[in-house]
Design brief:
29% of the residues lie in helices and 33% in strands. It has 442 residues and is α+β, with helices and mostly antiparallel strands. It has three domains: 242 residues, no CATH class; 82 residues, Alpha-Beta Plaits, CATH 3.30.70; 52 residues, no CATH class. Strand 4 and strand 5 form a beta hairpin.
Length: 442
């Protein structure tokens, strides 16, 4: 299976992701030509520049807006020979010459010229994106990523998507980053995109609304259901734009699986740290190490990642624990189980564990606190290999009985559904045994 694996050990920003994807794309010249053609009406230019971090060479995508580049610390660098002619005429019928282009013009900050942030709502951004000369799927991806950003901001500010005006994430350089990532993924055309757990950094970050903790609230909202960690690096490593791109494209966040690589890309960030500040992209084929290559019938398409939520309890009755188990299962848990454990002060207790989809983390955390006496829960992600299952109904003298068939990794299994066997036994007033009913299937 053609796979992109993104290693985000130093977080990710839109330009870092675009740079890493650019390095593994085999249509680099066409990509740069198309991006500069699309953004020319907005006086935006894009270039792929060589960059070195801790002795490692890679690419840093430089986005110039009206002759200026916004850096990671929010300052603006002037690039000679790229200034915009403020007297150039605008075509009122051309969406590219409207408010988005005008909003990128410099204005005064403390007596100095600096590029202003674009303040645009979701609807107006979608109108601009629709005008891009790009495949429909790419434009849909760009709009969908901005929708994720808008919904995260709306949740943080307790408002609606329609009322949100983008600040940092609405600037022209961010629009170029998101569009560039979408276009590159369209050109590479992977079957799946995977990523490592995300390093977000720690400390505080200054943004349009003031000084906020890392991860910023909108980034934290986007990270729901995604494994991340703070680490020891001070600073914002994962931006809202980077988080939205990853959330949209990545299907699983876990350590790198077995993969045969054909290309590796290094997308460099703007800042320098003791650790190489880059996103690393691996392009290759995921392979099964359980089945010989000549016998392999399928890839990891049936594998997934599950979240384990657990806690230790020593002050609940068996009835109350049983009820909690039933509630978890009714809420969609994949499985719930208990294990006897010895707790502090030599008290016997129970380890209660619930397996669920990673996206259901918040829901089941709430159920743990509501229906058990625990004051804390633990999380652990498990990579899971599983057989693909189908059902076949078999007619017998006792009626229809479903047969569950499972296959994968060169293995095939089947067994009758116990509930169907049980139903036959009960219908016959327990005059038959389960073994007798099972024998009728052969």
């Amino acid at each position: 299976m053609k796979t992109i694996y993104l290693e985000c050990n130093m977080g990710a920003a839109g330009d870092m992701l675009m740079s890493a994807l650019y390095e593994i794309c085999d249509k680099k010249e066409w990509f740069l030509y198309k991006m500069n053609e699309i953004f020319a009406p907005y006086h935006v230019t894009l270039s792929a520049d060589s960059s070195t971090k801790c002795g490692i060479s890679g690419t840093h995508m430089t986005v110039i807006v009206d002759g200026m580049e916004e850096t990671a610390d929010g300052h603006v660098h002037l690039h000679a020979g790229a200034a915009h002619d403020a007297n150039a005429p605008h075509n009122a019928d051309d969406p590219a010459s409207g408010d988005l282009a005008d909003a990128s013009h410099a204005h005064a900050h403390d007596g100095k010229n600096a590029a202003s942030h674009t303040h645009a709502d979701y609807a107006s951004l979608c109108e601009k994106i629709a005008f891009f000369d790009l495949p429909a799927e790419v434009k849909e991806d760009v709009s969908a990523i901005y929708r994720l950003l808008g919904e995260a901001e709306a949740k943080v500010h307790n408002t609606t998507l329609e009322q949100i005006h983008f600040h940092e994430v609405g600037t022209l350089d961010a629009l170029a980053d998101i569009t560039g990532c979408a276009l590159l993924i369209g050109l590479i055309a992977p079957d799946q995109i995977l990523a490592s757990p995300l390093h977000v950094g720690n400390g505080f970050v200054r943004c349009a609304h003031g000084v906020l903790p890392v991860p910023a609230p909108a980034t934290a909202e986007l990270l729901k259901g995604i494994p991340f960690y703070s680490g020891s690096v001070t600073g914002e490593l994962l931006t809202p734009t980077g988080a939205a791109i990853l959330k949209y494209y990545v299907t699983r966040f876990f350590p790198m699986p077995a993969i045969t690589t054909t290309a590796i890309g290094y997308g460099m960030g703007a800042k320098d740290f003791e650790i190489a500040n880059c996103v690393r992209a691996f392009l290759g084929d995921t392979v099964s190490y359980l089945v010989p290559e000549e016998e392999e019938e399928e890839s990891f398409s049936c594998d997934d990642t599950v979240l384990s939520i657990s806690c230790n309890i020593d002050d609940m009755t068996g009835e109350a624990l049983g009820l909690a188990t039933e509630i978890f299962m009714a809420a969609g848990a994949l499985d719930v189980y208990t294990i006897p454990v010895q707790m502090k002060k030599n008290r016997p207790g129970i380890l209660l564990t619930c397996l669920c989809e990673p996206d259901d983390r918040e829901k089941f955390t709430g159920l743990f606190f509501l229906h058990t006496s625990t004051r804390g829960v633990r999380y652990q992600l498990y990579e899971r290999a599983k057989l693909e299952s189908t059902f076949e109904t078999k007619k017998t003298s006792y009626g229809n009985i479903r047969i569950k068939k499972s296959s994968g990794y060169g293995i095939e299994k089947e067994k009758p559904e116990f509930e169907d066997l049980k139903s036959v036994v009960l219908k016959n007033h327990c005059a038959l045994s389960v073994a007798e009913v099972t024998k009728s299937l052969h």
